[in-house]
């Protein structure tokens, strides 16, 4: 009878973790997989991550040796997404609510304390407000090849309306530096900088409009942005001005006279925001 509850000898570090957190011998697996998926997707990730991705992660974790409870599994699944660099820019707005939810579950004894502490520590480190980051910090991170840090540092500056930061964030998304390549996100940030008058962002947005990258192909908009870039590049920047003129003229060959007139009207009426 007493042999049924005999302690097991840990075979590796994972066993030591399981015994320390869940007891020795640990309880049997008891997580409700579907409920854990719903909790992670809705209560912690707030719909930011697709349910199919949440499910894939939950199934993988639940198939391992850790005897998660339902809420333990939900927390562990969400933590995996909060830690992934490609999700950091998208989960910043929901991380505080997720942390509060984890604390509430802890108070209700639905999760083990060590998981909540790990969840809190990781989110605090990754999502702490960047108040002292500067463009120089961003450039330094890029110079040493740490694009993930550069992305984390540049995002708050871009959100504050800094056109150089917005342009650089567009470049990072266009080239997949620090996050997966995302042309739509690149075009969004180029547009924010372009609308404030950043000439290289205007040029890059023109290219994306002409090629249909991240935005629908629109030669009128491409012509407009190339023309504005030509006007705003300094006279000393001959190479960029020539390139913008060349691309504007290529766009013009694909436009009707009415479309050209429309593009010219948009240029005349444009004002920095």
Structure description:
There is one protein chain. The chain is mainly alpha-helical and 273 residues long. It has 15 helices and no strands. Helix 6 runs antiparallel to helix 7 and helix 13 crosses helix 15. It is elongated and about 80 Å long.
List keywords for this structure.
273 residues; 0% strand; mainly alpha; single chain
Short description:
The protein has 273 residues and is mainly alpha-helical. 67% of the residues lie in helices and 0% in strands.
Shape: elongated
What is the tally of beta strands?
Answer: 0
- Tell me the helix content: 55-70%
Number of helices: 15
The average pLDDT is: 89
How much of the sequence is in beta strands?
under 5%
**Biggest sheet overview:** none
Q: In angstroms, what is the radius of gyration? A: 25 Å
Q: Which stretches of 5+ consecutive residues score pLDDT under 50? A: 1-5
Class by SSE composition: mainly alpha
Helix and strand sequence: HHHHHHHHHHHHHHH
